[in-house]
Amino acid sequence: MTSLDIVKRAESLVEFYRTGVRSQLEEHGLREAVESLDRSEAILRAALKRDTTLSIGFLGESQVGKSTIINALVGVSALPSGGVGPLTAQATRVSYRDQHGFSVKYHGRNRLNEIRLALESDLKRKKKIGVFRASCG
């Protein structure tokens, strides 16, 4: 069952409660049950509205397998990999959904440097990690 199936099922359960069950409970004087189910419905509706996007960054030197691992994670060859030279030399955004398809967003060198500097600055400020440059080869 995909997450889209789960959302559709949850929405149909909420609709079933609203259009049928709730009125029957009220008709039989089951006020506590109605109040409890109304709270549960509100929690479920809030959960359905929540953004479930998970962002993950892959940084590394050229030719170390970033595109290969992304392709392995999504189960398709979404990005070129295994060739000679840099194949995804700019920052690339890949989005995955339960439906087939994906989107890729390329960022230029200037934007990538802005992001790198912001990350380094934030890490230094938080003193969470020392920032260093490693060279391969």
Description:
The protein is mostly helical. The protein has two domains: about 5-50, no CATH class; about 65-125, no CATH class. It has four helices and two strands; from the N terminus they run αααββα. The protein has a two-stranded antiparallel ribbon. Strand 1 (about 90-95) and strand 2 form a beta hairpin. Helix 1 packs antiparallel against helix 2. The longest helix is centred in the first third of the chain and has 25 residues, at about 5-25. The radius of gyration is 24 Å and the shape is elongated. It starts with a helix and ends in an 11-residue tail after the last helix. The model has no long low-confidence stretch (mean pLDDT about 75).
Characteristics:
137 residues, mainly alpha, two-stranded antiparallel ribbon, 4 helices, 9% strand
* Distance between the ends: 45 Å
Q: How many separate structural domains?
A: 2
Residue fraction in strands? 5-15%
Spell the H/E element sequence: HHHEEH
Question: How much is the average pLDDT?
Answer: 77
Oligomer: single chain
- State the low-pLDDT regions, or none: none
Number of helices: 4
Summarize this, please?
This protein is mainly α. It is built from four helices and two strands; from the N terminus they run αααββα.
Write the layout of secondary structure elements.
Elements: H1 3-27, H2 31-49, H3 66-74, E1 91-96, E2 102-107, H4 109-126
Antiparallel strand pairs: 1-2
Helix pairs in contact: 1-2
